[in-house]
């Protein structure tokens, strides 16, 4: 019989756990995630029409927590980070920006996200798209400054433009924190974001030994800036760690898989999981400007 592996306390800095694909079994997934060490998770916004769904998910899980005695199992604490995602730029309207501003006023948030620039597809690359993306990104950076909240960045094939825009703004990651989520840039870009004060979000992609550019960028950042430049995320239901994939059909990622991301990072960096978990917890708190004590 093999011993149960030791689980470490973790924070999932980026999930879409409010997604409808979790509607059937969200509570059992949440208790399983808690059982595997997950203590806090963030719900990340992308379209204004789902902000309310995020809040309902937060309520569903926190009311479950309040009844631990009856429910006999705990779930991670859930926090909101609403925002308008750049890849959905053609769906966003001015009214959605107002909606975000109101939502931020009405409900406690730990961050604004996910926001940024994305020129991955031909459609997103057009002048019209990029102009609108920059306008929405700027408006949301202003909201972050107004509310003194960190931003969670989504950047795909637009790292230089994103850095330029950040530099034009009064948003200072060294003061407000922030995460470059699911980091996908190269070594130099990784270093540039860390220099600005951002942490890099590491997903299950790190477990993919073919993701050479990513693995090199993360290793290089740690060599230059140390372990304090990283945080973990599942980005569930996407970014399933390699070990959890089944065949060629995409497998739904879940918050309980975060331990596999820790494992992958531990192997890449040759740092033991206990040391890494504690450091990553501290990094997450620093990126979100919160003071969550590391569970004993
Ligand atoms: Zn996301």
UniProtKB/TrEMBL annotation:
**InterPro entries given for it?**
DNase_TatD-rel_CS, Metal_Hydrolase, TatD-like
- Molecular function in Gene Ontology: hydrolase activity, acting on ester bonds; metal ion binding
Q: Does the keyword Ion transport apply?
A: no
| Residues the entry annotates as binding a divalent metal cation 2 | 154, 181
Query: Per UniProt, which keywords does this protein have?
Result: Hydrolase, Metal-binding
Note the Gene3D superfamilies from the entry.
Metal-dependent hydrolases (3.20.20.140)
Q: Which GO terms describe its cellular component?
A: cytosol
What PROSITE patterns has UniProt attached to this entry?
TATD_1
Asked if the keyword Hydrolase belongs to this entry, the reply reads yes
- Per UniProt, a divalent metal cation 1 binds at 14, 16, 114, 235
The organism's place on the tree of life at top rank:
Bacteria
Family per UniProt?
A: Belongs to the metallo-dependent hydrolases superfamily. TatD-type hydrolase family.
Q: What is this protein called?
A: TatD family hydrolase
Give the species: Psychrobacter raelei
């Amino acid at each position: 019989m093999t011993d149960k592996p030791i689980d470490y306390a973790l924070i999932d800095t980026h999930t879409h756990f409010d997604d409808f694909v979790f509607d059937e079994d969200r509570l059992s997934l949440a208790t399983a995630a808690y059982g595997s060490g997950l203590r806090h998770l963030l719900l990340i916004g992308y379209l204004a029409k789902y902000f309310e769904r995020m809040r309902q998910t937060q309520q569903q899980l926190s009311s479950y927590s309040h009844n631990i005695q009856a429910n006999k199992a705990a779930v991670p604490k859930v926090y909101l980070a609403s925002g308008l995602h750049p890849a959905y730029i053609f769906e966003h309207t001015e009214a959605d920006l107002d909606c975000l501003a109101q939502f931020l006023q009405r409900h406690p948030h730990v961050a604004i996200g996910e926001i940024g620039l994305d020129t991955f597809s031909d459609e997103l690359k057009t002048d019209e798209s990029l102009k609108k993306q920059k306008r929405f990104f700027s408006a949301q950076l202003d909201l972050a400054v107004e509310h003194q909240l960190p931003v969670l960045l989504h950047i795909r094939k637009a790292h230089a433009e994103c850095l330029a825009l950040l530099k034009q703004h009064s948003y200072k990651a060294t003061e407000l924190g922030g995460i470059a989520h699911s980091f996908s840039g190269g070594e130099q870009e990784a270093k540039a974001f860390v220099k600005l004060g951002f942490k890099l979000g590491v997903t299950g992609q790190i477990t993919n030994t073919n993701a050479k550019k990513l693995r090199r960028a993360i290793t290089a950042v740690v060599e230059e800036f140390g372990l304090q430049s990283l945080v973990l995320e599942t980005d569930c239901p996407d970014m399933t760690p390699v070990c959890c994939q089944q065949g060629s059909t995409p497998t739904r990622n879940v918050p309980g898989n975060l331990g596999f991301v820790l494992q992958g990072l531990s192997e890449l960096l040759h740092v033991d999981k206990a040391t890494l978990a504690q450091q990553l917890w501290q990094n997450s708190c620093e990126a979100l400007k919160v003071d969550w004590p590391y569970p004993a």
